[in-house]
Amino acid sequence: MKITPFYAVLLLLLAVAAGSLGAIATNRWLAQEDASRGMHDFVHKELRLTSAQEVRLDALERDFAVERRKLDLALRSANAGLAQAMSEEHRYGPKVGAAIDQVHTRMGDLQKATIRHVFDMRGLLEANQQAAFDREVNKALTSDPKS
User: Fold this and answer.
1) Would the pTM count as exceeding 0.90?
2) Domain ranges (residues) in the chain
3) 48 torsion bin: left (phi>0), alpha (psi -120 to 50), beta (else)
4) Domain 5-142 belongs to what topology?
């Protein structure tokens, strides 16, 4: 098959679109990583946990790391499916639409697991620690990440 200028431009546009989607997903993932790390640092350094709380928190973090890795891989797989659908359809067709839905579902799964983890962490805190934790969570969810 001869590559005409039209197909060359189309392939270039698809590559740019796929790269842009990847960059957006990566930026969101990195921002979530920073927020997650910030919360964990806050819990460990600012809440003055007892040794028993530290042990329980370490177990929660180990379990969540495994779950997060699984969910990250599922999201990467969904993104690969989107790239494949875009390559096959070369338009916003039914395969691309379904692939986008899969990406959104996997992103939602990751967000839900993260929120469950936040509540699990909160559950091991004393009432005064929970109040400070709640303020920090609210700040993390409502502040401008660019500030």
Assistant:
1) no
2) 5-142
3) left
4) Four Helix Bundle (Hemerythrin (Met), subunit A) (1.20.120)
